[in-house]
Amino acid sequence: MHTFEFIRPPNQAAAVATAAQSKTAQQGADIRFMGGGTTLIDLMKLNVETPDRVLDINRLPLDQIEATPDGGLKIGATVRNSDLANHPKVQKDYSVLSQAILQGASAQIRNMATVGGNLLQRTRCVYFRDTAMPCNKREPGSGCPAITGHNRTLAILGTSEHCIATNASDMCVALAALEATIHVQSPKGSRAIAFHDFHLLPGGTPHRETVLEPGDLITHVTLPPPIAGSKQLYLKLRDRASYEFALASAALVLTIAGGKMTHARVALGGVGTKPWRSPEAEAALTGKSANEATFSGAAEAALRNAKPQSENKFKIELAKRCLTYALRAAAAG
Amino acid sequence: MSDANPKSHPPDPTRRKFLLTSGSGVAASLVAGYVPALAKDTGVESDPSPTSTGSNIEGAVPITLRINGKEHSLRIDPRTTLLDCIRETVTLTGTKKGCDHGQCGACTVHVNGKRVLSCLNLALMHDGEEITTVEGLGTPDAMHPMQASFLACDAYQCGYCTSGQIMSAVALLKEPCGPDDAAVKELMSGNICRCGAYANIVEAIQQVRKRA
Hints:
CATH class of the domain at 231-332 in chain A: Alpha Beta
CATH topology of the domain at 231-332 in chain A: Enolase-like, domain 1
CATH superfamily of the domain at 231-332 in chain A: CO dehydrogenase flavoprotein, C-terminal domain
Order of helices and strands of chain B: HHEEEHEEEHHHH
Structural class of chain A: alpha+beta
Radius of gyration of chain B: 18 Å
Number of domains of chain B: 3
CATH superfamily of the largest domain in chain B: Beta-grasp domain
Distance between the termini of chain B: 47 Å
Strand content of chain A: 15-25%
CATH architecture of the domain at 231-332 in chain A: 2-Layer Sandwich
Low-confidence stretches of chain B: 1-10, 23-48
Number of helices of chain A: 12
CATH class of the largest domain in chain B: Alpha Beta
Shape of chain A: globular
Largest sheet of chain A: 5 strands, antiparallel
CATH architecture of the largest domain in chain B: Roll
Number of helices of chain B: 7
Largest sheet of chain B: 6 strands, mixed
Number of strands of chain B: 6
Oligomer: heterodimer
Helix content of chain B: 25-40%
Distance between the termini of chain A: 49 Å
Strand order of the largest sheet of chain A: 4-5-8-6-7
Largest interface: A-B, 27 and 33 residues
Strand order of the largest sheet of chain B: 1-3-2-6-4-5
Shape of chain B: elongated
Mean pLDDT of chain A: 98
Radius of gyration of chain A: 19 Å
């Protein structure tokens, strides 16, 4: 691990002011905020992350879950994943979020990992994690050995010729379906970012994963008021029954009235280079009868643009069946 | 080892103390070089007074850690993980290093009552917080009920993962967990046992839960 200066900023303004001195907020950042550490310390040990300064934000007052005036929910950036998943209001009104978090990682990691950190969770692509190998995400322009190498677990949606790394988060898939908003403090003030605008597709710049700039501190996430009577489900398929990343997952928020789906939000995990909201699937569901033909049509629509690699063609069929099964289960539930 | 006379060893020679005090100069110097606070080791459990240990490493910074109710004033390299600090600086070696990347659970300790992976935390993040390691749960003469249950159920084989399993199991008692074995298995999935003692581990935990 490279040497670094450990700093505990006394307040949010000091944290933002110091972080603004970083050359970038993306891969290669020389100043990093430290939340739970579950991603960052792991990658610092591998020399994938080599910050000169680490800003410990765990003692800033960002650890509350509160109701918002409009009836939604405000979730502080340092709220632990376990506290969020087990919060009574989340379990009642946003159960897809609770389900997704509890199907991710282990109990210990959920006790450590923060909401802000999970939003910035890095890919598990083995080439990204191994500094002996080229990787466009880690070292722009060095190449992507995954495309011709081990790519069984990698993405089939949103890929580019430069990067096919999967976004590993479960929490983010649920937040995409819940249409969350991410709130950021910067030296210029605060701003709100719609969830689907937060993560970037790899394109020709896979080292840029989010819209964050130096000095941007995620302070909280807000959820809109719960959709009355909605059926919510997170279904995760993986190689092991627990403590494993998704090969394919689906997050659903559905409202059914008179046999027809009046509200449908669909996001997929394990298959995309970012948490994968599927407007195609939502369009195929909204206003339609909740039946098998509609469900399989939505799954076909969601995967229509999938581009498989040498080892992960199975993910197309797996993701379709995952979404179809989840829709069937949610509609029946 | 060159010293073949067992009577020359301490009366209760643990593997570690054997290595540290053995007549083998090679083993002793290797381990002593790795454990700068070696001389403090023997009094750790019985001496309630604060300790002050650490290294003269360039860039070392001061920290006070509260481990098992005792304060340790230390100087550490900022890179030191909580795990390495507990094991190498404070020399509480019950907490084990397995993968060192958050994949095995052998390093599980409690921070402010919650179980965490000490390998994925910097010691500096926990200045002043309440840390509990397996040494703080019980003693051979007065075991924590979970330790006693692991013993009664033979919930281990080689024992390397056991302290992490027990720390997780004790924390699980206070977490939302369904009554059946499947719920226990799910919440214990972050603790890998390569000997495969899982059936007995689940049994040990369930016996404690049923008695509670």
